[in-house]
């Protein structure tokens, strides 16, 4: 069964990324065992490591594109099966192919799709604020002497993290639907505009809470707690989806 170069590239990236994480993992463990004075050096190392990792991955991508013979293939893309338009002779290929005005595609993008994306980003930001307001309210009651466990105070962060995952899931469907409606001609154009929508929303949905705590609230303990909750829960969900769920489906399918 052939899944295409995109799936192969994904698993190649997973292996490449996992191998590259070995060095910062070892240094992170050492930094945790040593004094907090080494934290600044570890942060500087991470900045340099990310830069070197990206450059190494670009080189790896070029190597794979040459090996797989996919260099320059985007210019030869055929129209997508879902691409629709008026049938006419293509000036390049000389064949009858569907033609759709580019200005209509751009009009749909900038007049409809991006305003919807912006509204979704505002919605994600509002959900984040509600979570913080709820947590602040519970902490204030706890400080006034109301008996309240630590888990209950952390519950808004846990619920918010679950909502982040749910919103990401439904937004990806929305992004796919909007990009399909824009009617891009080739698969590479479709993928590029879909990824743009995903990056805009998921940056706000996944990371805005951390920036908000760090630069607006300026509470390092809250930032540490929020980061830990989001990292643990989202990683657990993603690992279950990618590792455990396929195994369970396979085992269930044999019965």
Automatic annotation (TrEMBL):
Major site of localization recorded for this protein: membrane
InterPro entries (UniProt xref): Anoctamin (IPR007632), Anoctamin_TM (IPR049452)
Domain of life, source organism: Eukaryota
Transmembrane segments: 7-33, 39-57, 109-133, 153-171, 198-217, 229-249
Span of domain Anoctamin transmembrane: 2-252
Membrane topology: Multi-pass membrane protein
GO molecular function term, any single one: chloride channel activity
Pfam family name, one: Anoctamin
Subcellular location: Membrane
One cellular component (GO) term of this entry: plasma membrane
Keywords, in A-Z order: Membrane, Transmembrane, Transmembrane helix
Family, per entry: Belongs to the anoctamin family.
Protein name in the entry: Anoctamin
Organism ancestry: Eukaryota, Metazoa, Ecdysozoa, Arthropoda, Hexapoda
């Amino acid at each position: 069964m052939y899944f295409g170069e995109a799936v192969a590239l994904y698993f190649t990236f997973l292996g490449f990324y996992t191998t590259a994480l070995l060095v910062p993992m070892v240094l992170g463990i050492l930094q945790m065992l040593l004094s907090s004075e080494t934290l600044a050096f570890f942060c500087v190392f991470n900045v340099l490591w990310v830069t070197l990792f990206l450059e190494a991955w670009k080189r790896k991508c070029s190597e794979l594109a040459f090996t797989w013979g996919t260099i320059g293939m985007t210019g030869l893309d055929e129209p997508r099966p879902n691409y629709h338009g008026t049938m006419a002779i293509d000036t390049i290929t000389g064949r009858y192919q569907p033609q759709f005005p580019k200005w209509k595609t751009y009009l749909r993008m900038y007049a409809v799709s991006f305003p919807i994306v912006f509204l979704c980003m505002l919605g994600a930001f509002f959900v984040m604020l509600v979570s913080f307001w709820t947590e602040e309210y519970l902490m204030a009651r706890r400080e006034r002497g109301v008996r309240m466990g630590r888990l209950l105070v952390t519950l808004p962060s846990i619920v918010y993290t679950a909502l982040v995952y749910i919103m990401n899931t439904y937004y990806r469907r929305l992004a796919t639907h909007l990009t399909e409606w824009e009617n891009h001609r080739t698969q590479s154009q479709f993928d590029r505009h879909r990824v743009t929508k995903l990056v805009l929303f998921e940056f706000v949905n996944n990371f805005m809470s951390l920036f908000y705590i760090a630069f607006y609230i300026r509470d390092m303990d809250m930032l540490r707690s929020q980061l830990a909750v989001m990292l643990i829960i989202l990683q657990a969900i993603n690992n279950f989806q990618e590792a455990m769920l396929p195994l369970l489906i396979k085992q269930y399918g044999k019965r």
